[in-house]
Specification:
12 helices, seven-stranded mixed β-sheet, alpha/beta, about 325 residues
Length: about 325
């Protein structure tokens, strides 16, 4: 999508200008993985060429080293979203403008999944695409079914977006079918409630989470979807828009792991934080040691993402490992 953001911490149209960048759930993961040195391919449907916005987006992907050769061009326009960055007690706000976008109009069969997934080992998707339209939801289900048939590992970030689910069926009627084709599920407690109807009494408004309850949440998710190999849940203690506690847990059916907690006291931009966690987890599970190491890498990567504006995470493996190892002083590096 095209992302439009007012300058600094201004409200939308407080000044008559926007900062234009690009972003979106799956694209953010693809870029972050490419930054880590992994082979990364992005698959979607964009407007027919020539289209300055879509062409600019593809150029940005290529600049980060993401393979865009399997992107399909079709009817429709470029999706847009507006981000008003919050501060202190004022929350960030997101306004979507995605109706009649190319991906919203795309139907099953629009993408040759056998060709698009050739030589791939891992496929990642999110609950954002199914929220856009009924046809996009069907295309998303087609994608995970094809990936599993081809023998890929499949991860899905539930990413509940109540402002997007407008087309009829709600998330809880759509997302369980995608999860049935998933190996690694990524979510937060609200995602589990809204998307797959798994509930545990967790208070997310107090700014202090009861971590013991997340083991129960993970166990209920794994029991509901026995096809899952593991579930990772992010834990955000939102004390204000500027100050969050950040950690995560992971359960593989045998062991429940809880990560180190980061106290993020000055958030620059939290949009894309979950996507950087997903990318970190995928990279960690495929390139590092045990799941505990992958979890710590993912949380550290996401913590760093909160320090820079824009959707894309721009950190290297060494930088993430340094934070995960305890180097979080913020001292100038000369």
């Amino acid at each position: 999508m095209l992302r439009l953001t007012p300058p600094g911490f201004e409200r939308i149209l407080q000044s008559p200008q926007f900062c234009a960048t690009f972003g979106g759930g799956e694209a953010n993961v693809a870029v972050s993985l490419a930054q880590f040195g992994a082979r990364s391919r992005y698959i979607t449907v964009l407007p027919f060429a020539p289209n300055a916005l879509a062409d600019g987006f593809l150029g940005e992907l290529r600049r980060f080293g993401v393979d865009d050769k399997c992107v399909v061009r079709g009817p429709g326009r470029m999706g847009i979203y507006f981000v008003e960055t919050g501060a202190n007690q004022r929350p960030s706000k997101v306004l979507y403008d995605r109706e009649n976008s190319a991906i919203a109009l795309a139907k099953p069969g629009a993408i040759d999944w056998t060709a698009a997934l050739k030589d791939a080992t891992w496929f990642h998707t999110t609950g954002i695409t199914p929220a856009i339209s009924e046809s996009a939801a069907a295309l998303a289900l087609e994608s995970v079914a094809a990936a599993k048939k081809l023998g890929l590992q499949v991860s899905c970030d539930l990413n509940s977006r109540k402002n997007l689910w407008k087309w009829g069926k709600k998330a809880e009627h759509v997302m369980p079918e995608l999860v049935k084709h998933t190996d690694v599920l990524i979510a937060n407690e609200e995602d589990c409630q809204k998307c797959i109807n798994v509930h545990v009494d967790i208070d997310v408004e107090s700014g202090k989470l009861e971590r013991a309850k997340y083991r129960e949440l993970c166990e209920r998710v794994l029991a509901t979807f026995p096809n899952l190999k593991m579930v990772a849940v992010t834990l955000r203690e939102s004390r204000s828009a500027s100050n969050n506690g950040w950690s995560a847990c992971l359960h593989d059916g045998k062991e429940f792991l809880l990560s180190r907690e980061y106290d993020i006291t000055h958030i620059v931009d939290r949009v894309g934080g979950g996507d950087s966690f997903a990318a970190g987890l995928i990279y960690g599970l495929t390139n590092l040691g045990p799941p505990s190491e992958a979890l710590e890498f993912a949380v550290a990567a996401s913590c760093l993402k909160h320090s820079i504006p824009g959707d894309f995470n721009r950190f290297t493996v060494d930088e993430v490992k340094a934070l995960a190892a305890g180097d979080g002083s913020g001292r100038v590096q000369r």
